[in-house]
Amino acid sequence: MVFFYKNRNSFFILLGLSIFYVFPLILANVYFIDDMSRVNKFQYWSYIGRPFADVLYTIISLGAPVDLFPLTTILSCIFITIALMILIKRMNMKFNIISYLIVLPVLCSPLFLENLSYRFDSVFMAFSILLAILSSEIKGKKYIVIKILMVFVALGMYQASINIYFSVCFLFYISDYKNSHPNSAKNLLQSILIAIIAYILYYVLVIKLYLNGGENFYIKGMKENIPFNLDGLILFFKNIITILANFYFHFSFLYLIVLIVLFLISYIFIFKNIRLNKNKLNKIIFILSPLAIALCVPGILLFMKNIAYMPRMLIATSIFIVFLFYYINAFLKGYWKFLLVLPYLYFFSLSYSYGASLSIMKTYNEYLFTQISYDLNNLNIKDDDNVYLLNGAPMPSQVIQFTEKNKFMEAPFILNSFGNDAGANIMTAGLFEFHNLNINIPSIFEGQKYIDKVKDNPTIKKNLYNIYKENNDYVIWFNKKELKTNQ
Question: Which residues contact 217 (CB under 8 A, 6 or more apart)?
């Protein structure tokens, strides 16, 4: 595009800031949850409804199923930087430092850090965001088929990108309304229709036909939608309450107060600009658009019966923050606009603290696992033996301090801890494979029958853990010290 060449300096500035933001994740060099299983025995993404992720990875790896990190993370920055350039252009902003500060939360959103942590998946997530934003930006009836295909491919890269698409549609509507665009409502309704068609295509072609209605956990979640009746409406509002409760329990109360105040300030400007259009329908949509962008944070998840609200699924938080910064910019005058720099002190501090904590967790797990692996080999463990992990290894004190201050980041560390709580067994199995032990890790519930024996009569007793052996079963129990609380 011509505008990319004309604004190439802006592109390189945004790219530089993006790479600087992800630099601590590159330094940490961590295998993040699913990464561990892929680096040991490469597994593509089709089985979880992402066939186009397979295609992209085949292209960038030239057909070799190998770990391309940190190239994947750098490519993620490039894709998102292109998306930032499109946002600035589409929202009729000048290419300057203030515009950079407004759009950078697409990358710098705290909830996007988990997505960026994946060595393999981050590039698909970033590319799907680019496709979602690019599809929303393109105008004209002659491009409808192309737009549908873009959203369809974005869904086949990372399903949660549909939330980005919808939130950007409403963000662009707000921009069009403010700039008195005559077809703002028409463009919005057309974009929503395109998303619905693309989602139906994805559901029919990928879920039903390609995967033949597969029984994978992710696919089950996409198939179990709330019913279109009164019970479904009640469940929809329950889901809203659940996500609000999650935000309340996992975020500092101060953060929430700041977000609420900024959201209310945005509505001051919404009502100040409402007179720009005489059409009643346009006015109603304009008033509801900020609420729509907020609802897009959980987005499609609100219509599902049972699904975990993990940080990586809430990527549309990025656009919500962009919306807030867009209106804070309107609120601030003159040099006061540079107060937008302040949130980035938090964003970058969080990124570097998170990267350092990942490094600590990685080193801790490696040393711990090396010792346990040595003990298991001394007990003559063999391939296909069973290893039961009870209680889970405690996390390093520095990581605990980090997660206590940033509770919404706790899940990535739990899933990457040494144990079989939730998805941690994927990491643990991968660590065993790294040490040439292809063992079975049964459910933690199956190992409960050994709990008294491993605690009271262990075969190997250490300060941090005990190991009990019985036939082909090896039980590891971690001695977690309970924190004393004041009565």
Answer: none
